[in-house]
Specification:
This protein is mostly beta strands. It is built from no helices and 14 strands.
Length: 204
């Protein structure tokens, strides 16, 4: 349940059965690591390892095939006039062709939008995917995003953001995300013999 890529400070005390304790505990700290690749999260155990703002959380029963998923406002519509996100971090060290995959569906009001941003070390965010209202998509679709620009980076942050304008009358159900994974893509060669008929005149 700890946040990723974060310093945690602590002290250790020895306490007796009578309630007395040593008062000279030395403060220490540890730094939590990022998810290694391959990384997979189906949110069946909640949103573990995600740093979030607003109401982002795991939502049982709202995901693919009736399972759990990650959403910006479980059980209700999202709040207007705010920007919130769910963020996690992955370690892409040693990867050759990392790929982000997830499934999603969404419903947005006019003027609102969703997006996926990626940044090494939390700076220089790059938008890789998004949609804007008014409208939505009720069926689940799988998205696949190339992360090779950040291969071998040790602290790549992935952020799912929903931004709502100040029109309270146009808030909707929001964004539902499931089956998030980051894997190192390994393309397979075509088997021999390989045949392409090129019947389409547009093909050369």
């Amino acid at each position: 349940g700890l946040a990723l890529d974060t310093d945690y400070y602590y002290r250790v005390y020895a306490v007796t059965g009578y309630g007395t304790y040593s008062a000279d505990g030395t403060e220490r700290y540890v730094h939590t690591a990022n998810h290694p690749v391959p990384y997979v999260d189906d949110f069946e155990a909640g949103a573990q390892g995600w740093n979030d703002t607003g109401q982002w959380a795991g939502s049982p029963g709202a995901g693919v095939d009736g399972g759990a998923c990650l959403t910006d406002s479980p059980g209700t519509t999202y709040t207007h006039n705010q920007t919130t996100y769910a963020q996690t971090s992955v370690n892409l060290s040693g990867t050759a062709w990392p790929v982000l995959r997830f499934r999603d569906r969404w419903a947005l009001g006019a003027g609102d939008y969703i997006r996926v941003d990626v940044a090494p070390n939390g700076t220089g965010w790059t938008r890789l995917y998004g949609a804007t209202g008014q409208g939505g998509r009720t069926n689940w679709l799988e998205q696949e995003i190339d992360l090779s620009q950040w291969k071998n980076e040790g602290n790549v942050r992935l952020r799912f953001t929903l931004a709502a304008d100040n029109n309270v009358a146009t808030t909707e159900d929001g964004w539902f995300v499931d089956d998030v994974s980051v894997v190192d893509h390994a393309p397979a060669p075509h088997p021999y013999p390989s045949y392409e008929g090129s019947e389409d005149p547009a093909c050369t």
